[in-house]
Amino acid sequence: MASLLSPSAAISLRLKLNRSSAVSANTPSKICCTFPGNGRCQRLSFKTKAAGSVEGNVLDKESASISDKIDYGVVGIHHVGILCENLERSLEFYQNILGLEINEARPHDKLPYRGAWLWVGSEMIHLMELPNPDPLIGRPEHGGRDRHACISIRDVSKLQAILDKAGILYTLSRSGRPAIFTRDPDANALEFTQV
After folding, report:
1. What is the Cα Rg of the chain in Å?
2. Any idea where the VOC domain is (predicted)?
3. What is Dmax (Cα atoms) for the chain?
4. Residue 165 to residue 108: CA distance in whole angstroms
5. How far apart are CA 81 and CA 146, in angstroms?
6. What ranges do the domains of the chain cover?
7. What homologous superfamily is domain 77-192 in, according to CATH?
8. Residue 129: which residues within 8 A CB-CB, separation 6 or more?
């Protein structure tokens, strides 16, 4: 499995493979990288500011960047996918403890696995009943040191009281800001940050 290269590392690799080529200022260089998961070769263009030819492993350059500005219209996060072993158990937590409502307009029967879409403000969590490739034990005690989804809330102390009443473990933010971390029944870490 190949790893992603930073723009400067990818340029350096290309230059090592083709030491005799001359590089002119702002010449786009196309690098082929294999991305984990789909195994396809993706073409990436990097602009470099270089002068002269490449001699050995040396390339004088002012900077390397993917582009001057990447703008393809990002407006927000649509949903976060969360794996669960048992959909009913997860819905008990997400609906009855956290108070999230199901988005009835999202189809479940068109997918090859069971699931549910839950509203989180104008965005959603997509619960997917699928095998979890992550270990359920040995995860960090504090969810802030693990992969996690963060949900903005108005009052951390109210959520803290809800979790206390339900007997659900949590940790407070290590930085002292108003945030609380907990885990769902499948050990997925969730952060709730007061805004």
Report:
1. 23
2. 76-195
3. 69
4. 32
5. 16
6. 77-192
7. 2,3-Dihydroxybiphenyl 1,2-Dioxygenase, domain 1 (3.10.180.10)
8. 83, 84, 85, 86, 87, 90, 113, 114, 115
Closest to 52 (Cα-Cα) out of 71, 74, 27, 34: 27
Do the Cβ atoms of 33 and 10 come closer than 8 Å?
A: yes
Question: What local confidence, expressed as pLDDT, does residue 82 receive?
Answer: 97
Give the pLDDT confidence score for residue 143 in this predicted structure: 95
pLDDT recorded at residue 186? 95
Q: Check the CA dihedral 192-147-99-111 and report its sign.
A: positive
- Cα(185)–Cα(129) distance, integer angstroms: 12
Low-confidence ranges of the chain (pLDDT < 50): 1-53, 59-60
Q: What is residue 57's predicted lDDT score, i.e. its pLDDT?
A: 53
Residue 167 DSSP label: T
